[in-house]
Design goal:
By secondary structure, the protein is an all-alpha fold. 74% of the residues lie in helices and 0% in strands.
């Protein structure tokens, strides 16, 4: 019962934050966000950038819902009770919240498990976080092995990325470009490379870094 009351209170707070920007679909968006784990929702209420990102994803999901959906069936013609596509979408939304820069790859790795294990991940944020961190470590090890990256070449990569990143950050926030670029360069190289091609991801990261500078 406590959890239901907690969820209701979180729902009311989310509704009041969403309403000014999306009056026509506030109820729908609030309902979609309330499917996320409670700890994630609490964090979202304190982090405006995280909430904005989640709302953008929910809006994209709403547009996708309007497209004709395909029903997944087994070879013998029986309907699958929980389709892999549906689980994959839900899992990706949760994995993407961690901003690892490898959301698609990590989701693919986690989807190799049985449906029961995936459903457990969707309902247990702590377990999901452990699995995301484990998958991230595996990806980093694989990247180093595949590329045979030496310390010097990695430093060169970081320097080149830093230059490109600085020019993009300078367009968004000229006064803090140096500080923000320095903060962003502490992230994983793969995440930085993704940021160079994903403007939305860059904007979110810049907003977060700027907020950290101002506190």
């Amino acid at each position: 019962m406590d959890e239901e009351e907690d969820l209701e209170a979180l729902g009311e707070q989310l509704y009041s934050l969403i309403y000014p920007k999306h009056k026509d679909i506030t109820g729908k968006l609030t309902g979609m966000l309330l499917e996320l784990p409670v700890p994630v929702l609490r964090k979202m209420l304190q982090d405006e950038v995280m909430l904005t990102g989640a709302l953008e994803k929910a809006l994209r999901a709403l547009h996708l819902e309007q497209e004709p959906s395909r029903k997944v069936t087994c070879k013998d013609g029986d309907d699958v009770s929980v389709s892999s596509d549906s689980l994959g979408e839900q899992l990706f939304e949760l994995v993407d919240i961690y901003n690892t820069g490898h959301s698609q790859k990590i989701t693919g790795m986690l989807l190799e498990q049985h449906n029961e294990a995936i459903l457990k991940l969707l309902s247990d944020p702590k377990l999901l976080e452990e699995q995301v961190n484990l998958a991230l470590k595996t990806i980093k090890v694989q990247t180093v092995e595949e590329m045979g990256v030496s310390d010097s070449s990695e430093a060169d990569d970081t320097e080149r990325l830093g230059e490109k990143l600085f020019s993009l950050v300078e367009e968004l926030d000229p006064p803090h470009a140096n500080d923000i670029t320095g903060m962003l360069l502490e992230m994983d190289i793969a995440a930085l490379q993704q940021m160079l091609t994903d403007h939305t991801m860059l904007e979110v990261a810049v907003r977060k870094a700027k907020a950290a500078l101002e506190t």
